[in-house]
Structures are given as C-alpha cells and as structure tokens.
C-alpha cells in the first residue's frame, strides 16, 4: 500500500503560479504588466503595475 501512496504522490498534478513584484504597491501579485490608457485629450499613459494600482494611476492622471 505504501508504494501506491508514494506513486500517487509523485504523479500528483502540480500548479505553478508566477508572482511578480508590483513596483507601485510593492506586493507580490499575479498579472503585473505594462498597461496603457488614454487621458482626456487623447494622451496615452502607460504604467507597469497590477490592475488595482492602474486604477490609482488613472485617477491621478485624470485629476480625480
């Protein structure tokens, strides 16, 4: 029985999650990438951050 348990352990499914450090909030999160948006007068803004920080960057850029 022990050999079956060991074999099951060795053949278990593995999940790999890539976490990156967001330079804005300094947290390890998934999905840190370069994101861009357009301002009020057609200006294009880009930021390398996570999705929650992009909302903050967008609000700062638009003056909210």
Name the features.
single chain, 64 residues, alpha+beta, Wheat Germ Agglutinin (Isolectin 2), domain 1, two-stranded antiparallel sheet, 2 helices, 33% helix, rod-shaped
CATH topology: Wheat Germ Agglutinin (Isolectin 2), domain 1
Proportion of β residues? 25-35%
Apparent shape: rod-shaped
Q: Averaging pLDDT over every residue, what do you get?
A: 90
For the CA atoms, what is the radius of gyration?
A: 21 Å
Spans of at least 5 consecutive residues whose pLDDT stays below 50 are none
Report the sheet with the most strands, covering strand number, pairing sense and barrel closure: 2 strands, antiparallel
What is the percent of helical residues? 25-40%
CATH class descriptor: Alpha Beta
CATH architecture level-2 label = 2-Layer Sandwich
Number of domains: 1
Number of strand segments = 4
N-to-C terminal Cα separation, in Å? 64 Å
Q: How are the strands of the largest sheet arranged?
A: 1-2
Structural commentary:
Strand 3 (33-38) and strand 4 form a beta hairpin. The model has no long low-confidence stretch (mean pLDDT 90). Helices cover 33% and strands 25% of the residues. It is an alpha+beta fold. The protein has a single domain (2-62), classed as 2-Layer Sandwich (Wheat Germ Agglutinin (Isolectin 2), domain 1).
